[in-house]
Amino acid sequence: MAGAAAALLLCQPHSFVTANCFFSASQRKTSNTVISSKHEVLVVVGAGAAGVYAAIHAKTLAPHLTVLIFDKGYPLSKVKISGGGRCNVTNGHCADNMILAENYPRGHKELRGSFFNLHSPVDTMAWFTSHGVELKTEDDGRVFPVSNSSSSIVDCLMSEVKQRGVYLQTRKIVKTASVTNSGKFLLEIQQQPADHAEHVKADYLLIATGSSQQGYTLASQLGHSIVDPVPSLFTFKIEDLRLKELSGVTFPKVKVRLKLECVQRNIPQLTQVGPMLVTHWGLSGPVILRLSAWGARYLFSEGYKGRLIVDFVPDVHVGSLKSILSNHKHKFAKQKLLNSCPPEFGITKRFWSYVLQRQGISGDILWASISNVSLMSISSLLKECIYEVNGKGQFKDEFVTAGGVPLSEISLNTMESKICPRLFFAGEILNVDGVTGGFNFQNAWSGGFIAGTTIGALA
Fold first, then answer.
1. Fold that domain 34-230+401-458 belongs to in CATH
2. For the segment 177-228, what is each residue's pLDDT rounded down to a tens digit?
3. Cα four-point dihedral sign 307, 313, 316, 322
4. Residue ranges of the RsdA/BaiN/AoA(So)-like Rossmann fold-like domain (predicted)?
């Protein structure tokens, strides 16, 4: 019966189902209805990666557990659009869990323990592979489905939801949560649009709502504090008309340093090395996104104003740089500056033109005519090019928030609340966020697995 009920439920997302009965329309419209089950009940709030993964693992370990997922939107919507529609499942270049933890600006200390030992990127890849999803690891460590389509991941998870008999309800908001005298959770569920409410009793509650205010509200109702959420993983807006003309130019490796008025001490993570992309509004690319994640709270407090110092040739020492320019001057004395850029720099002609223009040097003069002062000027710009950051842009592939339930209030080896028994958290609802590259999904898979298997074992 459970399989048939699940199949029908997935086709009719607005009907409400428990393990042992369907409720009629008249029953569903009665706001005082309290829905319960003869079996223990797990309610998962949030049908994202963490919530769905947890529900599957809980139901796998405890087949008689009634598992209900509520979501105000559509299931796995973030998974569907992530990675440009390809879904960056995890990162395959961090076999050492200590190194893996260093990719989490919020959580890098706490996640060094049992968290990734219980469910690592290798475990995530093995699970999806064993469920029919072929994966590939790209040069930078990002892991994608071989199909290059997030649908492979979504379909795999939804198939498991259906086969395991997990009940999924969309367009429903869990408005309130409280604990009864018997220790059960009493939840008020509101249909969208708000035409009626239901009350559900649950033995276990998992909040996996991402950065939604809904999750913060429920956590607060059950005694938890919330670290104020702020954006993470964003691009930098920079007002530079000449830079806009370079839109689309990429740099395989630059070194960037962020200076902020509110930060007087040296913070190593505010210096990053990696690829950078020029956009029509400023700067993006992995190195900028990592910098934005580590500087998220500082940048928020500064109104997203700061100074960015870019080294465009990080592998070339400043002394070598001067020698390269001098040697090029003698070797190509009769060529125009614009037409001859030292190949050791590995920069495009468009960017070389930008360097000359920004330093006020004519590209039409011959190398033989360039002064030592101008050579010093070029050298200085390549090693320390300063940009004023005056805002943040959106990174469309990942929407990540810093903040949420403090990790000090949960046990990472079970994902259970230290404040409220049988209450669990997983995913971005927690004050954990990773840099770009599959790390945020890995947080969801690991947390979902630990919470799900802990609940399954208890049930």
1. FAD/NAD(P)-binding domain (3.50.50)
2. 999 999 999 999 999 887 789 999 999 999 999 999 999 999 999 999 999 9
3. negative
4. 42-453
